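Chapter review: from sequence to fold.
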Amino acid sequence: MNGLFITFEGPEGAGKTTILQAAADQLKKNGYSVLATREPGGIEISERIREVILNPSHTAMDPKTEALLYAAARRQHLVEKVKPALEEGKIVLCDRFIDSSLAYQGYARGLGIDEVYSVNRFAIGSMMPNVTIYFDIDPEEGMKRINLNHAREKNRLDLEKLHFHQLVQKGYEEVMNRFPGRFRIVDASQNVEHVLKRVNNIIEGALKENQL
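The token string follows.
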């Protein structure tokens, strides 16, 4: 791959989406060709799957069904949008990728990180991010932000109790222990300007490392 694949991860309410868009805008100003996208979604098929997964009325969804749907959406998004962009030499900034499934379904839902990793490796092959930026925030603070942000899309995961989101945080800690070389941690409790500066510095370092 000629491009650079950077994923943004973190619990609900960490502010990933806002920072990702701002970082993409900065890269474009600096003359880079950038694709900003998200999971699940990013293309029509995956957005349809997103509607099924995150629909607040689908509370009966089995955890394994949820994990498989995420993997299916990820596969289609990868082959239809992400890989072609990387082959064109673009910088791809993606809001969530495989680590979300490992933390949410693997750990918090109790399916097992290894089991969910196996399903996702079938979906994505050897395609892993060059760098993953983790937005670290206390789950209570993240949920407060969600409740205060009336413009935010409320989804099925937002309906989960605080304990679930605490498990997600622990899940991410476990995932970072497994892939320490890929992760860069950002204190997401800071103000937007501070977080964006830190993220831009991380991306700049990744560009230099990959000679882009």
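Two observations follow directly from the output. The mean pLDDT is 94. The longest strand covers residues 4-9.
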